[in-house]
Amino acid sequence: MSKKTKHMFYLSMLYSVFFSLFLMYGFLKIRDQGNIFNTNERLMAEQNNKEQEYHNLIQITESTKNDRDTLAGFFITEKDTISFISNIENLANDMGITLETSQLSIKPKTKKTEPQLYVGFNFSGSETAVRQLVLLFENIPYHKSIPELVLTRNADDGTWKGSILLYITITS
Amino acid sequence: MIGKKDIFRKTRQFFRHGHGIHVSKIIYPTRDWTVGLAVMVILLVIGAIVNINIFSHYSEDSTNQNNSARTEFLYKAALVEKAISLYKNKQELYEALSQKTKKLPLSAEILGSSSTNSTKMEGVTNEVGGVVVVPIAN
Lengths: 172, 138
What we know:
The complex is a heterodimer. The relative contact order of chain A is 0.11. By secondary structure, chain A is an alpha+beta fold. Chain A is rod-shaped and about 135 Å long. Helices cover 56% and strands 26% of the residues of chain A. Chain B has a domain at 28-56. Chains A and B meet through helix 1, helix 2, helix 3, helix 4 and strand 4 of A and helix 2, helix 3 and strand 1 of B. Chain B: The chain crosses the membrane at residues 33-55.
């Protein structure tokens, strides 16, 4: 090969290398842009989904407002506890039952349970009145449990004595 | 002076011409064009394949984006209605008890049974003179 031919050969090789590098750069650039496109599209899809979920949640919240208000009424609040106990005492008095509050405390909120009002009553009266009172306790329209109910009958005069413990869930 | 060596050298040069003239042509346009076009076609085909792959890859991705995970909020309406119904019944009964039974015996409908036999109290066993402890749920 002549010197000129070698020169042209080297120039051609150099051109080929540069052109290949340019093509490789373009290919990598397209791939990077594609990855960015994928990432952005995924983020947009997630954002759209969150937006849709937000609207759905708002719709559910608005459509269930009445139900939630109704349900909220079935939980006693801390400020209503005294009036609730007074009401029970007045009702028992109206029924002709002697009633006294034996226990009153608030169990603070834990990780598993909401705060609860622990309230206990001792009562005595006629059998019918005691049955009414127990029925009344059983149907207190608050979220509650009755862990303990003790009833004793006095054989001498036929009257009934009892004690009851109520765990009533409190909302703030 | 021309010697014997010079005569032999001239003779060799003369006879070498008998092998023919050296061909100095190193370019073959037809062959080179053919090779160049073939390389170009191969590059075009490779480029087309790469581009089709890239296009199909991103077009599939763009169509699959809508299938990303979506969190559904479950609102248990039936459970809420059941709870409301249950507590409304309790509320009505509680109000009925508190209004209608003041110093008055309960009606048979409210008590469920007007029998004086206290063994019919739900969950409570009547034992004369005894002590009964009965847990009642809710």
